[in-house]
Design goal:
The chain folds into two domains: 71 residues, SH3 type barrels; 249 residues, Porin, CATH 2.40.160. An eight-stranded antiparallel barrel has the order 8-9-10-13-14-15-16-23. By secondary structure, it is mainly beta. The chain is 9% helix and 58% strand. The radius of gyration is 52 Å and the shape is rod-shaped.
């Protein structure tokens, strides 16, 4: 009986040893990543070096658990394998017979991670175009040919008629002053529609004095011009500092003349004023500089083309004897013949001059074309 008990005990011990797992058959722990990303670290420490990252849903196998960390082996895309630690808050156990009680994962402070942030372009701010109001002034250089030729011709005629044997060289009317105001309405970001006016005026006095037979003579001529032009134009700014523009103009012009001959206390003179209307065009370019958010200064060069031939007005003749005579009509230009020479003349006559000595009479052609240089300020609102 005693011998049988010993044999039974030895058998039970052998059976228990056979049922224990061998050292090479350690049971693996299957895990699944439940966070967006899980960091695999070299050591079970939040401050340890990060070896790899795996995405949510990745299945892992762990050999053992050390505190709050699982030792796992991870396969890389190139076929190699690494071993490291993953925190328990980032995974869940898959093959546990008892379904774990869900516990709110305790997030360990992770090292900051740089994430790619989508940078969306900001929509371009819609800037309301500005209204512009410009004030400008400057000089205008022109050559009203018939006015200047007549002043020279009248002077030369009397110098020849009096037998002086002299000739004069008059400068003529060229430089006049101009002033203007324009309003610009925005059609787009850099395109504006302008409406405005410009006024210019000028006159040129030329005097020739001489003595003949103990008498003192003085010849005075004064061609003059005034013009009010209404303008509609388009302005384009290809750059903030530079602009170009072009437009159509309606010209309301007035031409005038004065011819006066003095001999000691005696004198005689002709004065005339005539108005005309016509259409022309202009083009300009300029540069501008901001002074404040609402004020700019600019410098502009421009060319204008305009010619007027339909002048009408009146001529006044007067002399030292008290004689006065007025004649209404149109402004004519012709050549006067004297001693085989021809001298330009310009007068207002009721009808086309046809008397002896008159050659090639026609309506006067007053040229308002020329170049201008203006400076001004521009209000922005």
């Amino acid at each position: 009986m005693k011998k049988f008990s010993c044999i039974l005990s030895a058998g039970l011990v052998m059976l228990s040893l056979l049922t224990l797992p061998s050292a090479g058959q350690v049971q693996k722990i299957r895990l699944r990543v439940v966070s967006e990303q899980a960091n695999i670290r070299l050591r079970p420490d939040i401050a340890s070096e990060m070896l790899w990252q795996v995405a949510q849903g990745t299945e892992l196998e762990s050999d053992r658990k050390e505190g709050e960390w699982y030792l796992v082996t991870v396969g890389k895309p190139d076929g190699s394998r690494i071993q490291g630690y993953v925190h328990e808050s980032l995974v869940e156990v898959m093959d546990s017979g008892v379904k774990p009680v869900p516990v709110a994962p305790v997030r360990q402070p992770e090292e900051p991670r740089l994430r790619a942030v989508e940078v969306r372009p900001r929509p371009e701010r819609q800037v309301r175009p500005d209204y512009l109001l410009t004030l400008a002034g400057g000089g205008f250089y022109l050559s009203p040919t018939d006015l200047n030729r007549a002043a020279q011709g009248v002077t030369d005629y009397y110098l020849a008629d009096l037998g002086t044997g002299k000739k004069a060289s008059l400068d003529g009317l060229h430089l006049v002053w101009c002033y203007g105001l324009e309003f610009f309405y925005p059609l787009g970001r850099r395109v504006f529609l302008g409406l405005g006016f410009e006024y210019m005026q000028g006159a040129k006095d030329s005097t020739v004095s001489f003595t003949l037979d103990s008498s003192s003579y003085r010849l005075l001529t004064r061609p003059g011009l005034r013009n009010l032009s209404w303008r509609v134009s388009l302005l384009y700014q290809p750059a903030d500092i530079f602009y170009v523009r072009a437009g159509l103009e309606v010209h309301l012009a007035r031409a005038s003349y004065l011819y006066r001959l003095e001999q000691d206390d005696l004198w005689l003179e002709w004065k005339g004023r005539a108005s005309g209307l016509n259409i022309g065009w202009m083009e300009a370019a300029g540069v501008q500089w901001p002074v404040t958010s609402w004020l700019q200064v600019y410098l502009e060069g421009a060319y204008r083309y305009a010619r007027i031939r339909n002048f009408e007005g009146h001529n006044e003749y007067s002399d030292s004897d008290g004689l006065m005579r007025t004649e209404k009509g149109k402004l004519y230009y012709w050549l006067v013949e004297a001693d085989g020479q021809y001298y330009p003349a310009l007068f207002i006559r009721e009808r086309t001059p046809t008397e002896p000595g008159v050659l090639d009479p026609r309506l006067a052609d007053i040229n308002l074309s020329g170049f201008s240089l203006r400076v001004g300020c521009r209000l922005v609102f």
